[in-house]
Amino acid sequence: MSKHEVTVTVNGRPQQACVEARMTLVDLLRDVLRQTGTHVGCEHGVCGACTVLFNGRPIRSCLMFAVQADAADIVTVEGLADASGNLSVLQDAFWEAHGLQCGYCTPGMLIAAQALLEETVTPTDEEIREAISGNLCRCTGYQQIIEAIRLASRSSTAQVADHDE
Amino acid sequence: MTSEPRSGFRYISRKRRPQEDRRFLTGQGRFVADVDLPGMKHVALVTSPYARARIRGIDTSAALGAPGVLGVLTGDELARATDPLYTGIHVPGVRRYPLAAGEVRYVGEWVAAVVAEDRYLAEDAAELVAVDYEAQEPVVDPEQAVLPDAPLVHVDQGSNVLLRKRWNWGAVAEEFAAADHRISYRARWHRSSTVPIETFGVVARWDESAELLDVWASIQMPKFPDHLANALRLPGNAVRVHFDVDVGGSYGVKRGIKHSVLVGHLARTLRVPVRLIEDRLENMRGGDAHGPDRIFDVSLAFDSDGTVRAMKMRALDDLGAYAGRAPLQLGKPVGAIVGPYTIRAVEYEAISVATNKTVQEAVRGFGQSPTNFAIEMGMDRIARQLGIERLELRRRNFIAADQFPYLIPSGSTYDSGDYHAVMDKVLDAVDYPALVARRDELRREGRLAGIGIATCLEPSGGNSSFEPLLNTRNETTTWMDSCMVRVDLSGSVTAVMGTSSSGQGHETLLSTVIGEVLERDPDTVRVVHADSLNALPSNSPVGSRMAIMLGGAGAGAARRIRQAVVAIGAHNLGVSTADVEYSEGAVHVRGTPERGLSWKEIVAIAHRKYHLMPDGMEPGLQAAFVWEVPGGGTLPGDDGRVQMYPCYAFEGHLVLAEVDRETGLISLRSYVVGHDCGTVINPDIVHGMTYGGVAHGIGAALYERFSYDPSGQLVSQSFMDYLLPSAHEIPDIRIVSHCTPSPLTTFGQKGSGESGYLGAPAAVVSAVNDALAAIGLEVNEIPLWPGALGDRIAAAEETGTGTAGNARAVPWAGPQ
Amino acid sequence: MKAVDFDYVRAGSVDEVCRMLDDAAEDGKVIAGGQTLVPLLAMRLTRPALLVDINAVPGLQGIEGTTDALLLGSCTRQAEAERSELVCLQLPLLRKGLSFVGHVQTRNRGTIGGSIANADPSAEIGLVMLTLGGSVVTRSSDGDTIVPADEFFLGPMITTLMPNEFIRQVQFPVWQVEGWQGTGFQETSPRRSDFALASAAVQLVLDKDGICRRAAIGIGGAAATPVRIDAAAEGLVGTTVSEADITAAADVVREMVDPESDLHASADYRRRLAATLAARAIREARAEARRKGEGPDVEA
């Protein structure tokens, strides 16, 4: 058995832990750092519920070991709202469009959508579907999720336009 | 109960952001895996690699010596300490415990449980449990399992046929004799399920000083606390189930009673908090959450004008290794056995057969979706045979709007509906001629394109009449739900519900109806989930019942509050209750708005000023309401006629599909669904569940299957092989809404959440068969995988015959 | 689903990787992106005593162009290759294949070398490498070995890699043939992102008269390894790639593949599908080449 010290920045806060090599990143986040917003759905890299931003890119946190995340910058669903708890444009759009039901896939879905919108400000429907195709949702049939992402895209664009004026 | 006015709602039917969404969007949902108790230990399971084997012995010594291990429990030990799990039908030879005792009956069945400091160590130790199996020949094919010489899944039961009932409603033989035409066909619905993204999980803690078992579980199960206490041989008030756990999807299957009995027992005997969160493999193999697996043999008698006179249906369901509640899923369809049609006479035979496969659990619609798939396939066949357009054939057979309430042959009365109007709206919305033109254009390009049509009823307001129907020892005639509403001294309103939610938006439902009745802003109404010792009775969100039952109970409790407010107001204004008006919580003398009392003033009187209360009124401001299912309360007749559920929502599905002739791949080009569930409480929630139901139905039709090999090995046990549709597979879906209020419910609402799933499989198959007709091919089993379909298309194009690979059609044998 | 216990080392150099693998004898495994390995570990289907992490090894990431090839460090993320302008310009077939690999999340972590080392017969990256006649640079304490793609794949999840070796680099040839190059990548799977029931990769070059000067056809998922069907490709060379020529090539593909039946599809289906997809991929490549030929470049 090997134990390893890891330091990760989670939602802007540096955190330290001593982990076994075999501990997955998602188990570190949930069980050690108690950031339970990120969910576990399959543990074999298919469902996407455990999606987090890893150095800015969405990855599946069940498909890497915590020790591999040393020095990484991680954003989870808990990091999307601002410090005073105001929802992000994306979260607000999900609420407005009811882009969720049971809420279990939602954190991973938000992270995947966030990554998409950071790269593509006005994605096409096909781009939206591609971006969330690695996140399985059993409640919504994806319809209101896609609507929410469209809405977030429109809201962000509108905000940018406001700033320009 | 009298009905509220159906129009001019203040909050009902209006856009409102669901109350519970915010916590999920910020990662603050509290799911069972988020429950963290001090000193909590973790379970891993030892599971059977064999479909059928005798357990000669279990050696737990190595596991007990492994690092971090607190205990190892075997089936024999658990069977001695607990009573068998509840079984829905009377099969005394089928005893089910959380861990197999003496014999394993399917691959993945739990044999032993290991408790350790963490899940990693528990899994390490589980590998060290040595089980000595004597493998035996399994029975895997349900049609083999019914034969007299088949190996027995339960020797003590003497037969694999655990349920066989036949009913005859109406003059079936006469209708068949008199009809112009008869057809017989088979419809095969292979095994799939709801497969929520959250697996089942449970945490339990035994408090020795209080002699109380606290349970947190991702549960959606009627009478769960009672079943749990019974199996653990505890009084009901020694089990406290916490319903404030968010459930990560269920759609029927989250009934981990065996998990909970096991974990409850471990927590009690080891004196530590224990948790079991299924991993995905445990969930798929041994979570006992598979769905219906049915073979339908159907005969229809009809006239040349398309009138369907009578149906004979035999449903053979492969329920897996134990009975559970699965056989009851053959009973619920009795309540809508003729679908939306005026079929006059029905013979229905329901057969549940045990095989060496994973156990079934309740799945969205409780057996109605497969049944609807079988009925709708027949409607398409009749249309083709008679050369009548498929929608026109259905219209000719629809129950007409002026025929409601409508009594169907099997004894249920449909409350209301206007099926013709919904279909008209769908055709308008989709521009049907344009859709046909689009299909025909694809066909001219040489493609296999087809339009699918299906209708379905969603029986709702879930009652449990199928229990006494299938088990005469069970006299259940109520399936009540309840709500408590409290107004505190500050004047804010809290509603208490007695069950957990798995995405249906019950907090929004309750706050909306309570806000409606009290004329108070729903966003100020807090909804809490009580624990089972604090809660009024609930039968959980099964059977599309909560809009009706919880909504009705919440409105009922709110109405009592409103009456109390009116009484206090009138008393203090010195007039009779008939002479005051209630407005947004305040009360004033009718016609004299300036003579009144505010909400705050009345609340203060109720809480502090007993001297100002009318004589005989309780102090405080709270009300409970327990509601019986409308139309419930009676046992089935000897002929099996029964009022199943009270309300009947309707959907019509219209889909354009293309089948790739060379690859067998099916793509859905357009999907429109007409939906009528009466008064909608929250449109976004209802639409969401409809979209999700359609997606689930598309999954069942095209992707999802628990496949077994001949030795009983489950070969689709991970998400690599059990294919849940992603955003790529689900097309853009359009909902066309219609409202035919129910006369039986508080606001005219009916249930919602299932009908997408009830109609989509039939609609997709209808579209595929419309496409395949060009090459003389017809399919009758789902899911339709490209590999198998590609082979059949190739064979059809080669030989010119399209039925070679179909599930065998067996003509109905008739009464024997 | 938790992995068995193992030791972990984050290697700092190619030599350290070699040393670690030597020391671990047969019990060591290299982890790069981990997108295939971690599920196998979680299901306890593989039980190495030591994981050697090569993600931080200098020199294993990045894309480099030579006169006639692109050299991709084995640890290059699939997403990086997908976004790379070099790949876009010089290896469009790889870019097309990458779009079928897993999902955004797995491509962000999964590597070029990792996919090839795992040798799934349906995997896209290996198919592209094989189709183009690329090669794998493996490394052990004995130094580099260049293994042609034709020789590298031995069977499902089986390659020539020895326990003490790892992939250092993957080489994809860039064709230098005068004319207009077109590529086609076609794949059929139950869901868009699943492993393919079969797939076809095609690259061809048409000259100014529309005659095919060079062609390569590879098929995935229809044999124990991806296969290149040279006979089918050679049949296209010298033709105008007419429908008849395409049918002839597809017929050769149908003859040459050797699929097996499994849960999702029969051998017959896969055989037909391989031919169908080959034909579609050839058409896709032909259309692309012709488009370029008809474009403004013709006049210039």
Quick summary of this structure?
Chain A is α+β, with helices and mostly antiparallel strands and 165 residues long. Chain A is built from 5 helices and 5 strands, in the order ββαβββαααα.
Description:
The complex is a heterotrimer of chains A (165), B (816) and C (300). Chain A is an alpha+beta fold and 165 residues long. Helices cover 37% and strands 16% of the residues of chain A. Chain A has helices at residues 25-32, 89-97, 106-119, 125-132, 143-164, and strands at residues 3-10, 13-20, 51-54, 57-60, 73-75. Chain A is globular and about 50 Å long. Chain B folds into 3 domains: 21-28 and 480-627, Aldehyde Oxidoreductase, domain 4 (2-Layer Sandwich); 32-136 and 200-277, Aldehyde Oxidoreductase, domain 3 (Alpha-Beta Complex), CATH 3.90.1170.50; 294-465 and 635-799, Aldehyde oxidase/xanthine dehydrogenase, molybdopterin binding domain (Aldehyde Oxidoreductase, domain 4, 2-Layer Sandwich). Chain C has 12 helices and 14 strands. Chain C has helices at residues 14-23, 37-42, 78-83, 85-90, 92-98, 104-109, 112-118, 124-131, 149-152, 230-236, 243-256, 267-294; strands at residues 7-10, 28-31, 50-53, 63-65, 69-73, 135-140, 143-148, 153-155, 158-159, 166-173, 180-188, 198-206, 212-220, 227-228. In chain C, strands 4-5-10-6-7 form a 5-stranded antiparallel β-sheet. In chain C, strands 11-12-13-14 form a 4-stranded antiparallel β-sheet. The relative contact order of chain C is 0.12. The model of chain C is unreliable at 296-300 (pLDDT under 50). Chains in contact: A-B, A-C, B-C. Chains A and B meet through α2, α3, α4 and α5 of A and α1 and α18 of B.
